[in-house]
Amino acid sequence: MKKSLSLIVFVGVVLLILFLLSTSKKAPLIPDDILHKNARSNEACLVCHGPGQNSPLKAKHPPKEQCLVCHKQKKSV
Questions:
Q1: Any residues with CB less than 8 A from the CB of 27 and at least 6 apart, and which?
Q2: What pLDDT does residue 24 have?
Q3: Which pLDDT value is given to residue 45?
Q4: Which of 18, 32, 49, 77 yields a CA-CA distance of 20 to 30 A from 41?
Q5: d(Cα 38, Cα 52) in Å, to the nearest integer?
Q6: Is 73 helix (H, G, I), strand (E, B) or coil?
Q7: Residues 6+ apart with CB under 8 A from 65
């Protein structure tokens, strides 16, 4: 019984560590340059990052219609 409990605790700790590592990756900030000054909407982002545009997003990129949920504007100094 003691071995089973130890195994369950060990597996739980490993799963917790893996979960925390998978959620710690932050999305890049929106650059603070002239091209991104007016990037205040998803539509503005897709002008350049939409399919067939100059800088399209990779196929594995998460939901492409929610840019500003993950990406935040860089604070100007």
A1: 70, 71, 72
A2: 64
A3: 92
A4: 77
A5: 21
A6: strand
A7: 42
Write the single-letter amino acid at 20.
Answer: L
| Buried-exposed string 28-42: b where 16+ CB fall within 10 A, e elsewhere | eebeeeeebeebeeb
State pTM to two decimals: 0.59
Q: How far apart, in whole angstroms, are the C-alpha atoms of residue 25 and residue 28?
A: 9
Amino acid at 31: P
The domains of the chain are located at: 2-70
How does residue 77 score in pLDDT terms, banded at 50, 70 and 90? low
15: tokens are: 């799963």
Band of residue 76 on the pLDDT scale cut at 50, 70, 90: low
